[in-house]
Write a structure and sequence with these properties.
alpha+beta; Jelly Rolls; 4 helices; 5-stranded antiparallel beta sheet; binds zinc ion
């Protein structure tokens, strides 16, 4: 198991972590297998989508913001970030990508994205290849 840390700079942010994950895949001993990318956080997520147009990250946040309003949930009485928890739960904390010849088999328009919903924070990304 390997990990690395990402410092997010804003409350909502989408960060392409593909190069860092690919680096770990290349250093790993196995040529083929599955690469699991996981964040051990309740208000951040991992997803796979397009990075060529950064508007997609903004669109994703705007779409989720329309679905999930802020400040109306029970957990908001605790620490005011229920919407971030719900959005993170919908996207999920992990993605799994097949590895072939020490390369992530992502499509041309696919990137692995860390999605921050309650930043700025330091986020840990765990990578397991089997
Ligand atoms: Zn909370």
């Amino acid at each position: 198991m390997k990990d690395f840390f990402v410092k997010t700079a804003r409350k909502y942010q989408v960060i392409d972590i593909t190069p860092r994950v690919q680096e770990i895949v290349e250093q790993d001993g196995s040529t083929d297998g599955l690469c699991c990318v996981f964040v051990p956080h309740a208000t951040a997520a991992v997803t796979i989508n397009e990075n060529a147009d950064p508007n997609i990250g903004e669109d994703l946040h705007n779409a989720l913001a329309k679905l999930i309003p802020e400040g109306v949930w029970r957990h908001d009485r605790i620490d005011g970030n229920a919407a971030a928890h719900i959005k993170a739960a919908i996207l999920g904390p992990s993605e799994t990508v097949p590895v072939k010849d020490r390369r992530l088999t992502l499509g041309t328009w696919q990137s692995l994205m860390l999605v921050e919903f309650d930043g700025p924070r330091q986020r840990r990304v765990i990578v397991q290849i089997r």
